Amino acid sequence: MSLKKSEKENKHKKFLSNKYKRIMKERQKKNKKKKPKKQISGIYIDSGYHNNGSKIIKVLDETNFKKKVRREKNQREVTINIPKIFSFINNPNETIVTLKKIYYAGTNNHIHSIYFNYSQCNELGLCASLITDLIILSLPRYKNKKIFLHGSAPNSIEARKLFNITGLPKHLGIIDQSTPDSEILDTLSNLESGEMSERVVEFYQKCLHTQGYELTMLGKNAFSNMIGEVINNSEQYSGINGTWHALGYFDKPEQGESYGKCRLVLMNFGNSIYDSLKEADTTEYTKNQLEKHTKKNYNFIDKISYTEEMLWTLYSLQQNISKKRKDRNDDRGNGTIKLIKNFMDVGAKIENKKSLMSITSGKCQILFDGTYKLEAKNTNGKAYYQIAFNEDNDLNKKPDKKCVYNLQNKFPGTIISMELYLDRKYFEQLLSKEEK
Predict the structure, then answer these.
(1) Given this model, what pLDDT does residue 377 score?
(2) pTM (two decimals)
(3) Cβ burial, residue 344 (10 Å; 0-12/13-18/19+)
(4) 3-state secondary structure of 431
(5) How many helices (H) and strands (E) does the chain have?
(6) What gap in Å lies between CA 88 and CA 107, rounded to an integer?
(7) CA 203, 204, 208 angle in degrees (round to 5)?
(8) Start-end of H helices in 266-388
(9) Domain extents for the chain?
(10) What's the DSSP call for residue 271?
(11) Do 201 and 208 touch, CB atoms closer than 8 A?
(12) Looking at residues 384-393, what average pLDDT do you find?
């Protein structure tokens, strides 16, 4: 009896021991699951982020605005490396390629997570930031799956300021650092041209106030009309799926400095200038003008250095050139040339810094860096302004390839991007010249 009892006790102890081991193993497994994982800042975007996305998606799809991103087989996350200079003004080709990669990654059903690596970005253009934001906001229109976005902010202080004013930090789960030393025009999209231009003028007034100046009522109306015409062109000529947008940012003068830097972007998705001019609704008068101009420049038009698209885009910027112009007396086509003139007149050159403006449309890039000026012309008693980007200011001669050049990749729409320095001393010099 005692032996049997001992065996039973041993078996029972072994049973309890094994049970204890199983319980401990289960607890260890649970504890492993409960251990806090390394936190990854980020956010899922879903249907709650819908904006004007469906039209933007249609435009980007129709133009195949995609560039494949390398990834391992079955990998669900990709990294988008933002270039050192992410700007349409100073690096349009690489900027377009990067945006195409973002759109490819966002619309690929096999990719569920995108990491935006801004760590190497030293110069960030307001134009590139705006379009990145608009693409990201449009992605939920493409597929029902949620997309996880995360990433890093630029290390450069200058680039980080611009990075912080867009919606991207919120989408990446990065805490937005305040920018108390700035004036911001929040993104405007698809507003009626009058309202949109009024908001842009209000922003510009705030920038001028930092220098102790403001637009007169006459100046305010003129500036409003000029901006309104540019926006109206975007609205009318961007096509059935066109959308138009604006964004502004102003760095107030730092201590000891007399100037601040104003950035303004006016852009549209949809038809480029060249696309719009080629459409059937362009007037016969304008078609004839374009045909005559093409014949005059036929000898040096090619498919690389100076294309028909570049020729037409540059020509369209001149005064009284518009796809809707009916005859010689029609005064359409003044908005863009007035914008260029105002930019050149107001933007000051500060030591080794200079105001810059670029127009990116389709596969054409035009850079205004102060090398070439608008000149007053007079033909048959009719005064107008012209800029041809060559020493003779002659539209029938090739423009400087540093200022007017062909892009490797097409942007589906038109971007007018401005960076100008507003300087109190420069304004005083302008006023003294006017008084004389």
Answers:
(1) 84
(2) 0.84
(3) middle
(4) helix
(5) 13, 13
(6) 23
(7) 120
(8) 273-277, 284-296, 308-316, 335-346
(9) 43-179, 183-435
(10) -
(11) no
(12) 93
